[in-house]
Specification:
Number of strands: 14
Order of helices and strands: HHEEEEHEEHEHHEEHEEEEE
Oligomer: single chain
Shape: globular
Length: about 350
């Protein structure tokens, strides 16, 4: 008992020392005026460079410290005549350094070019989907996956994928015309439920469009509920043809829902597995893998459940020597085994599963 109390007391003292050390470090940074807590000098330097290279064209609209670095800031500027563009420049006035070029002037020129190209990509996306009757609600920062509002049911899923696929074709074509390097083998579109836009957080209306549509709280709010992701293969031909017929649809859910799905699908599939493998145990975490909706329906999903023919010796965890390709409903119920795969790992034990 005495040793146990000593250990606890020692742990508390170590925690206090660590916490005290961190507090002392933060206090020291504040006392010494470390730039990590002040963007003023970096903003001032960014304005100087902008006024010299682009007089009257760039305006600072925001700045943030580059924590955990001890100096430097990311300064964001708007572009006169282009309400969509946002120039992001990482500046360290104390070191007279800017990321992205041999000098701050070179870095700013590249940042402006990048911002204008990005704005063009954003306009291509919005014109494509807005023109199809599906206004863009948001996009992740790289502008490769727009969010739109769509209602998907068993009766409408094929029609929705076809209509959105036509929008995606317009988007891919316009994007390729602007910059052939952005052409990819597939594109994805996120489907939010109708009415979602009404409750989404919004950035300040005066900010460039690219900042408003990639606003962090807005994206976080969209991901708080389950949503669909449609993925369309894109051909390597000159027209960058979007293969609507081969589109895939999957559900993305918050972590708690995926964990609940994992537990339910394991419990649901075990009786079928034990009909052939009486001592089978699952590895758990199936819901954290990729599960796709069966073509033509939103009521059945398909994915892999890893399992062991019998529990590992000495209480070790089952990592999965076998894999069952399984279908279930979106809650993990009514699971059915399509087939069992036995050769699923290479000589190093790395998992190798074929497409579903």
């Amino acid at each position: 008992m005495g040793r146990r109390r000593t250990a606890r007391g020692s742990g508390r003292r170590r925690t206090r020392r660590v916490g005290g050390g961190l507090a002392a470090l933060l206090l020291g940074l504040l006392v010494t005026g470390c730039a990590a807590f002040d963007t003023d000098d970096d903003v001032r330097r960014a304005r100087e460079i902008a006024d010299e290279l682009y007089p009257g064209e760039l305006e600072v609209v925001g700045a943030r410290i580059l924590f955990p670095e001890t100096t430097g800031s990311e300064v964001t500027l708007s572009v006169a005549g282009d309400p969509d563009a946002a120039v992001r420049l990482r500046v360290d006035a104390a070191k007279d350094h800017c990321d992205g070029g041999p000098s701050c002037k070179d870095a700013l020129r590249k940042a402006v070019d990048r911002a204008r190209l990005e704005a063009g990509h954003l306009r291509a996306m919005r014109e494509a989907f807005d023109g199809c009757g599906h206004p863009v609600l948001a996009s992740e920062e790289r502008l490769t996956a727009p969010w739109i509002e769509v209602r998907v049911t068993d009766e409408t899923v094929d029609d929705v994928l076809a209509r959105v696929g036509a929008c995606a074709q317009r988007w891919v074509t316009a994007r390729a015309e602007q910059d052939l390097e952005v052409a990819s083998r597939s594109v994805s579109v996120n489907f939010a439920a109708p009415g979602t836009a009404e409750d989404l957080p919004a950035a300040k209306s005066a900010l460039p469009t690219v900042l408003r549509l990639t606003h962090g709280p807005r994206l976080a709010a969209l991901a708080q509920k389950s949503y669909y992701v449609a993925t369309y293969p894109v051909g390597g031909d000159a027209e960058h043809t979007v293969d609507v017929a081969s589109a895939g649809l999957r559900i993305v859910s918050p972590l708690k829902e995926r964990q609940a799905f994992s537990r339910q699908v394991d419990a649901s599939v075990l009786p079928a597995l034990r009909a052939k493998y009486p001592d089978a145990v699952t590895s758990g975490g199936a819901g954290l893998g990729v599960w796709r909706l069966e073509p033509g329906t939103v009521r059945r999903m398909r994915g892999y459940v890893l399992f062991c023919e019998r529990p590992p010796a000495e209480g070790k965890r089952c990592n999965g020597d076998l894999a069952a390709l399984v279908t279930s409903d979106p809650k993990g119920r009514d699971a059915e085994v399509v087939r069992v795969l036995t050769d699923i790992r290479d000589e190093r034990g790395v998992l190798r599963l074929p497409p579903q």
